[in-house]
Design a protein that fits this description.
Helix content: over 70%
Structural class: mainly alpha
Largest sheet: none
Oligomer: single chain
Order of helices and strands: HHH
Radius of gyration: 20 Å
Distance between the termini: 67 Å
């Protein structure tokens, strides 16, 4: 179980690093999140119980990652909205040319 929790911590650090990059690669991030889910499925299927303190740290990292992902999604939505408004402005301008 300790090995899995160490792997989970390494994956969490990689995800956090990816999110910290200015232009995060969405495919790389999706693969990291998939790997994390697969590892969590292994931990859940195990008959062995995780260490309470290590598991509490993992839960805390999960909350931080969820918050960071929500922030990333909100930033992407804001950027998309700005691009759409810009495109509409350009189309309106071309209409009057």
């Amino acid at each position: 179980m300790t090995h899995w929790l160490q792997q989970l911590e390494a994956i969490d650090e990689a995800i956090a690093h990816s999110l910290a990059e200015r232009d995060a690669d969405p495919e790389k991030l999706a693969q990291q999140l998939h790997d994390r889910k697969a590892l969590l499925d292994q931990i859940a299927a195990s008959s062995e119980q995780p260490d309470g303190q290590a598991w509490a740290k993992a839960l805390s990292r999960t909350e931080q990652l969820v918050q960071a992902l929500d922030n990333e999604r909100a930033d992407a939505a804001k950027t998309l909205l700005q691009q759409r408004k810009g495109k509409q402005s350009v189309q309106l301008y071309k209409k009057f040319q």
